[in-house]
Specification:
alpha+beta; 6-stranded mixed sheet; about 25% strand
């Protein structure tokens, strides 16, 4: 898909959210693009979430981290979070693999404990992020059925 087409699609996915949540998603995505400029953004408009993964390649298996966007807010999801050192105890979740951090504001991404987790996740990635270049935005899937993107009553 052409980049303009992907950009238009992603904007339409984000527009499904209530305005405050959409603003948070756009701000967090902008910060992640600045933090990981060589990563590909792999976008999945799934049943439960709008997921924007950051990957060294076009393969989902190379994703290190993603923004999980739902009607209840945005989280930074670590694909192999269960294996990350978490001395600050900020990782949430109890699955075998994934862990996440809630992002009440984009500023949370710059907090030292979150930055330490991100650095650790990048360091243990099977495929390192490219040293140069610019990542592309790639829409990987769009689910026909989706949970509402706006909280009830909004």
């Amino acid at each position: 898909m052409a980049t303009a087409s992907a950009a238009t699609q992603v904007a339409s996915f984000i527009a499904k959210f209530d305005p405050a949540n959409a603003k948070l998603i756009r701000a967090c995505r902008s910060m992640m693009r600045k933090r990981l400029p060589t990563a590909n953004e792999l976008v999945y408009d799934n049943y439960n979430f709008l997921a924007i993964g950051y990957s060294a390649s076009e393969r989902t298996s190379d994703c290190v981290v993603s923004l999980a966007c739902g009607s209840n807010g945005v989280s930074l999801s670590f694909y192999y979070g269960a294996t990350l050192p978490d001395p600050d105890g900020i990782l949430l979740g109890s699955g075998n693999q994934n862990r996440f951090v809630r992002l009440p504001s984009p500023a949370t991404l710059k907090e030292p404990p979150v930055e330490r987790l991100l650095r650790a996740a990048l360091a243990q990635a099977k495929t390192p992020m490219p040293a140069s270049g610019r990542g592309r935005t790639i829409v990987k899937s769009i689910s026909a059925k989706q949970r509402p993107r706006r909280a009830a009553g909004r």
